Sequence to fold (508 residues):
Amino acid sequence: MLAGCGTLPASGDDERHIDVGTTSAPSTLDPAAAWDGSWELYRNVYQTLMHYAGTSTVPQPDAAKSCGFTGADSRTYRCKLREDLTFSNGNPLDAAAVKHSFDRVLAINAETGPAGLLDSLEKVETEGDRTVTFHLKRPDATFPFILAAPATSLVDPEEYPADKLAEPGTLVGSGPYTLASYKKGSVAELERNSSYQGDAELRNDSVSIRYFDDSDAMTDALKKGDIDVTYRGLPPDRVPELEKTADEKGSIALSRVVMPEIHYLVFNPEHEYADSLAVRQAVAQVIDRDALVRKVYGRTAEPLYSMIPRGITGHTTPFFDRYGEPDPEAAAVTLQTAGVTEPVPLTFWYTTDRYGSVTAREFEELERQLEDSGLFEVTVKGRKWEKYAAAYNKGEYPVFGRGWSPDFPDPDNYIAPFTGARNALGTPYENAEITDELLPASRRKADRAGVNEQFSRAQDILAEDARLLPLWQARQYIAADDDVAGVEWSLDASTIMRMWELYKKTSW
Fold:
């Protein structure tokens, strides 16, 4: 099967084993091809040079022993590796392997991959077996955060070719766990990596990550005791039920997590009507975020009026400031002024299995709101994530929905991934003021609290263009059997679950 071997404990029968349920299945096992929720798995089986320790939002060395900029201009960054690092198959994790890992992401430049996140990287040099130097094209104070993202997962040169993706099923890392077996879209079986060297202290021996297409089925599995923890995709209308169960029976604990996760619409101007500024602005004037959240997500979400969410440095509310309360009459004037007098036909696409099955209800509500205005004729279509992501990266959809959990907790990561010729959406969005002026100016500032001016202006530009339309910000809940501990430590600063923090109280 995959890297790692041994006998797995019987699921649910071993006190040192944890079963986790999620609706966020990996799209691929190769880090060079994924800029999405696949990172949930990567964080636990691959290693990065940097990571987030505990509740810190400041990157700290992991595979590296030390890292830092070598000059005041934030253009040269050097890391010294830990001694005697190896991958799970015994091959050395040395400076050459680190260089290989970065070079191949850029060389392969996969449509669905994270090459855009490394846009500031010019070249990687090595000195001996343990020293790696990153030369940047321009100052970039966010680079340490990028080194903590699973986009920069370290891979074995013998298993991962320099110019193409690894064979399907390949996964060789140096993280806390090995992937003992994997059934796509169903389950990933993780086992403790005996050769791991890093900061993680494993509180369990093995983890089964079970992938669900249906959110209700996942919740039912938790209530029946088939899984111990649920994360991502918990249906909002089941939260009160789980709270009641927690209060009355004490068998389930529900933890609310402050999330910088956002959900939004993307307009592709290569398609008719989506290319019209008036149409996009009219949609922005009609959509009622309060009603959307109230009817579909309840207390598990809150309305969002910027691509930078509340709680992140630089957050403003430009979509509310510009468009105000939902106003179909104002939207009608916007369209008429542009010469649009007939209802506008638009097709909205969403993924049926990535963010929970409640997403269908979200898009039904959007359809209702827009059609009730009399200004739009909306068709809603859904696809499973793998085909959905491939299609939007090829520019097939005029309007589509996405969710975003940050690569790192900085306002840069809510603007830069969505703009520029090569971005995470497969839909080029070239705005010279953002990409050539605002982002470079902000990246020269090591003090990230001092970037408000640049990001306030960037948010205003996005609201005016309405190419990206923020909808809501998540209030995530983690539901767990009350015998499971470590939940409060299980999310890192980029809201990725660290499975090694979970354990059953009876096992310690």
